[in-house]
Design goal:
Layout lengths: L2 H12 L16 H10 L2 H11 L5 E6 L2 H4 L2 H10 L5 E5 L2 H6 L10 E4 L7 H11 L2 E2 L3 H6 L3 H10 L7 E4 L10 E3 L3 E4 L2 E4 L2 E5 L7 E4 L8 E8 L2 E6 L10 E5 L6 E8 L4 E7 L17 E4 L3 H13 L4 E9 L2 E9 L7 H19 L19 E2 L5 E2 L16 E8 L2 H9 L8 E3 L2 H20 L10 H11 L10 E8 L25 E9 L4 H16 L21 E3 L9 H9 L5 E3 L1
Parallel strand pairs: 1-2, 1-3, 3-4, 25-26
Antiparallel strand pairs: 5-13, 6-7, 7-8, 9-10, 9-13, 10-11, 11-12, 14-15, 14-17, 15-16, 17-18, 19-20, 21-24, 22-23, 23-24
Helix pairs in contact: 5-11, 13-14, 15-16
């Protein structure tokens, strides 16, 4: 093929990009081909192309917010990605214009992104929206409701969203009850009793001075939460009395294992969730090497995703943040923040810009006669390109992980013939062929009770009653089972084996006759095998948690570690399968570093 034929073929192929070409179909034409062809054009073609494209209609998206918000890094990251859409142009309203200029002088836009913060003239913005009638992503009228926690809770209740049990003490209204009876360890608000610990919230959402009151059994006093100042988010106060001026919401304190969950929606079908250290713990904010608050990605359950959808639609806020408390196997919404962004997550910025851009063009492209085609649905399964040129979805991650440093494992054997042990052996299904393994707290408690009984018999028998089990072994059995004061974990186990003719030979357990001669056994007996030890040392705990942090950085949006393989968003209710064994609870520390304890469903 000659060069002339190649050139003519290229020009004919490039004709597909011409709107006058009879087979022009730009929405379906691959974007990367357009970019390649545009880069291959000569200078004359580029100049002519610029003159024609300058006449194309763009969607003007206006950002109306205080300069601190509109100039923040998350907002700039999202606006930069929005600008990559062919038909979207963004304009940031100057703060001076918002505060001082009349609304008639504000820029005229097709789409308005506006949200309230301290000092922002929300009523003025509502008047501008009524004057220009742009497409609004976050409803302005509902932002007035978000400033009052009483109205927020009422809307959440109407939507059937779970809330902590609460009561409102309204001292601002004359026609409402505001009866408060305070006692040492409880209060009564309008006939509703709250035992300490309970939470006291101001009704104004702009007031972040939230107090948690503790009972006298926990030292009394209160933890006072506030907006983060440096590395502090709360302080302890010895004051145990509730505030006597102002209106408040009182609610039950929810035990959340020291974490709370922040959820960020972008439309009703997308939610990003993160867990952070609860400010109610010690008030110290955990920060990384860059000074950012440490947060861990969280996988929402199907029910929590439904809650996120309800919150987004109920408050008519496309971009919306709210707080979840996971307690007692349930999820409770305790606050709705309105417009808020995830910090320091490139994946979230990509998703947010893509969803907002598609939402804006889907709404405005037909009315502005913009040749834009609807892309794939937002709920398409996550797929990633691979080195083989195919599109694949992550199905599972297989890891072989050994436990960290631990204490030595120990074992003791003893031969037993007492009837109480045989009764225990029969109770749990023991047979001559099947041994019995006792691990549960109730089972170990029964063994401990028998050991205590036999030691009591030895001590008070005065030689009248024969107890075949040796006192030294019984003492050791009791001491091991009484360690820590309770049964928890997997560091102790008792096994009973049936011996039809007794123990046939002398062993290290020294279970032989008192005369030192190994008599031929004739009566059946049981061999009790006690195992303990093998617990994680402090160094092992650090090793497990550090390994979890490394895996956490490989999750989408995790910062601080490069990953060679792009991993798509994990599915809802991502299960973790652990090999069945005696020590499968040790990976819990690894999981705690991975996604915070309680945020992954375990299947054994």
């Amino acid at each position: 093929m000659s060069y002339t034929e190649l050139e003519s073929g290229y020009k004919g192929f490039k004709g597909f990009l011409d709107p006058n070409y009879p087979f022009y179909f730009p929405p379906a034409f691959p974007q990367y081909v357009k970019q390649r062809l545009a880069g291959m054009e000569d200078v004359e073609d580029e100049d002519s192309g610029d003159s024609s494209s300058s006449n194309e209609k763009n969607v003007i998206v206006g950002i109306c917010a205080m300069a601190k918000k509109s100039g923040s890094k998350p907002m700039q990251a999202i606006l930069t990605r929005l600008e990559e859409f062919d038909y979207i142009k963004t304009i940031i309203f100057p703060e001076e214009t918002i505060l001082k200029a009349p609304i008639e002088e504000w820029p005229n836009v097709d789409c308005l992104i506006s949200f309230h913060s301290k000092g922002f003239p929300l009523e003025k913005t509502a008047s501008y929206a009524a004057l220009r009638d742009p497409f609004i992503l976050n409803n302005i009228d509902m932002q007035f409701e978000l400033q009052d926690r009483r109205k927020v809770y009422a809307i959440l209740e109407e939507e059937g969203i779970m809330l902590p049990r609460y009561a409102i003490l309204d001292r601002d209204s004359n026609d409402s009850m505001h009866a408060l009876i305070e006692s040492e360890d409880h209060i009564e608000v309008n006939g509703v009793t709250f035992n300490k610990p309970f939470v006291e919230k101001p009704v104004s959402a702009e007031d972040h001075n939230i107090y948690i009151y503790y009972p006298t059994s926990a030292g009394a006093g209160s933890q006072r939460l506030f907006r983060k100042i440096g590395s502090r988010s709360s302080v302890y106060s010895p004051e145990s009395r509730v505030r006597k001026t102002g209106s408040f919401i009182y609610e039950d304190f929810m035990p959340t294992d020291g974490t709370d969950v922040k959820v960020y929606t972008v439309g009703p079908d997308y939610a990003h969730a993160e867990a952070r250290k609860s400010p109610a713990l010690d008030g110290k904010v955990e920060r990384d090497s860059c000074g950012k608050e440490v947060r861990y990605p969280v996988i929402l359950s199907a029910g929590e995703k439904l809650v996120a959808r309800k919150v987004c639609l109920a408050f008519k806020q496309t971009v919306c943040g709210f707080d979840l408390l996971r307690a007692n196997g349930k999820s409770y919404v305790c606050d709705v923040n309105g417009f808020s962004f995830v910090k320091n997550s490139n994946k979230y910025y990509d998703d947010c810009a893509r969803i907002l851009g598609n939402m804006i063009l889907r709404e405005l492209a037909p009315t502005l006669h913009i040749p834009w085609a609807i892309p794939f649905q937002l709920d398409d399964p996550p797929i990633v390109p691979t080195t083989f040129g195919k599109m694949m979805e992550l199905r599972c991650v297989v890891g072989v992980i050994r436990h960290g440093d631990r204490t030595p494992k120990q074992k003791m054997k003893m031969e037993i013939r007492h009837s109480k042990f045989f009764e225990l052996f029969d109770k749990y299904g023991g047979t001559p062929e099947n041994n019995v393994k006792l691990k549960k707290p109730k089972q170990l408690q029964e063994v401990l009770d028998i050991a205590r009984f036999l030691l009591f018999e030895v001590k008070h028998s005065d030689g009248e009653k024969e107890v075949e089990e040796k006192r030294g072994k019984l003492d050791q059995l009791r001491s091991v089972l009484e360690m820590y004061g309770y049964f928890s974990g997997i560091n102790r186990k008792v096994q009973l084996k049936y011996q039809p003719k007794g123990h046939s030979r002398g062993t290290s357990s020294d279970d032989i006759s008192s005369a030192g001669i190994a008599d031929e056994p004739k009566e059946p007996s049981l061999v009790l095998i006690l195992k303990w030890g093998g617990e994680l040392t402090p160094a092992g705990r650090v090793q497990a948690e550090e390994l979890g942090r490394i895996f956490r950085c490989m999750y989408p949006g995790g910062q601080g570690m490069a990953c060679d393989i792009p991993i798509p968003t994990l599915p809802t209710n991502f299960p973790l399968y652990l090999l069945k064994g005696n020590r499968t609870e040790y990976p819990i520390l690894f999981i705690d570093g991975l996604c915070s304890a309680g945020y992954i469903h375990l299947i054994f």
